[in-house]
What does this fold into?
Amino acid sequence: MRMRAFPLCLLLVAAGCASLGAIEPGPEPVKEPIAALSPARRVWEQGQIAMRRGHPDKAIACYTQSLELDPKFSQAHLSLAAAHIELGDDEAACPHLGRYVEARPDQVSVRGHYAELLYRLKHRGEARCQFDRFIALAQEQGGPAAKNLLHSHSRLMEIAEQEEDAYAAHLHRGIGLLLLARARAELSDESTDPTSESLLCKAAGELTLARQEDPEEARAGWYLYQVWSALDQRALAARWLRDAQEAAPFHYLTPSERCSLQLAASHSALELVHR
It folds into this structure.
C-alpha cells in the first residue's frame, strides 16, 4: 500500500529540530600525573592529544593500541568512532560506536548517534531497533535526550515508508505531529494557538489511519488519547484511553508510555468516582 506523503521538512525544520550533531567529546584531559594512569589510558590520552592537533590518523593508532592493552576500555571505542567519522569513514566508525553503546547503554545521546549512523549506512533494521531503544530511554530520562524524540520518530517514519509499512508510517508521523504541536504551543503566547490545533488535528488523522491499519495495537490508541485530551475532547479521549488499556497487556508500549497509561487510567477512574 502506498502511504500518502506528508512533508518531512515540517517535522524537523518547523520545530527548529536539526539532526543529531557530532559525537560528544570524551572526558576532559586528566589532571593526575600520566605515570599514575593505566597503560591503556596513557595511550588513549596520547590519542586525544593527536585529535586536538588535527591528526585523526595518528589518534586512531593510539586508540587501537589502547584497546589492545585493555579490551574493556570502552571509551577507546567511542574515540575511534569519532576519529573515523572525522576522516569521513562511517563504515569503520559504526562497529566501534555499536561496541560503546553495548558497553554503556546509559549513554542515550550516543545511542542516538549510533542509530543515525546506521540509518546513513542504510542498515534499516538495525537503525529502527536503535531508534526505538533511543525513544524508550529518552522518554524516561527527559532533558536534552528528549529534544531528539521528534527527529527519531521522523526517521522511523522514513524507514517505515521505505519498507512500505503503512501502520508504522502513520503511527510515527502522527506522533511526530503531536510532538510538533506541543513544541509550537510552548512557543506561542496565545492560550489557544490555531497552528498547534491544526497540527493536532493532522496528528489525529494519521493516528486514526494507523489504528485502521492495525486495530489491535495499543500505541495508536494511547497517542490518540493524548491528542484528543490536548484538543479538550473528553469523550473521544476517554474512548481511546479505554482502547489503549484493553490492548496494552498484549502489545508493545515503551516503559514510559505504559506507566503514563496506567496513571491516566487511574486518574480517569478517580474522576468517575468523584462525579
Notes: Residues 166-187 form the longest helix (22 residues). Residues 1-21 have pLDDT under 50 and may be disordered.
